[in-house]
């Protein structure tokens, strides 16, 4: 079971609560409800990797993503404005690999919880001297 850490100020808006629940579910390996919150033509752009289009392709990819093997998930920042939300944090994967991430979500509209587009940036953090 993954340990999940979310800064207290990351939950004071409906979309922030929605994404907090989304990340918690992903860290626990549960992607079942995510599919209901994606538009059929969702686009996932992963910087430096490429782009995935369509709900079916998105679900296939997310099931094999780094979130499936999380030991710890730290959500540091969530910023919302209209139909857009930015989430940044860190993932600690098995073997001690630490990955910093920033995901930008675009929803169908400001009042919608249907995800239209995700842009993801992920970077493996170097191990600091003396850090285990």
Report the β-strand fraction as a percent range. 35-45%
How many DSSP H or I helices?
A: 2
CATH fold-level assignment: Nuclear Transport Factor 2, Chain: A
At CATH level 2, the architecture is Roll
Q: For this structure, what is the CATH class?
A: Alpha Beta
Order of helices and strands: EHEEHEEEE
Shape: globular
Counted up, domains total 1
Number of DSSP strands? 7
Compact summary:
The protein has 132 residues and is α/β, with parallel strands linked by helices. The chain has two helices and seven strands; from the N terminus they run βαββαββββ.
3D structure, described in words:
It is a single chain. The protein is an alpha/beta fold and 132 residues long. It has one domain: Nuclear Transport Factor 2, Chain: A, CATH 3.10.450.50. The chain has 2 helices and 7 strands; from the N terminus they run βαββαββββ. It has helices at residues 14-27, 55-62; strands spanning 3-6, 38-46, 50-53, 72-81, 84-92, 98-107, 115-124. The relative contact order is 0.19.
Keywords:
2 helices, Nuclear Transport Factor 2, Chain: A, 132 residues, 7 strands, 17% helix, alpha/beta, globular
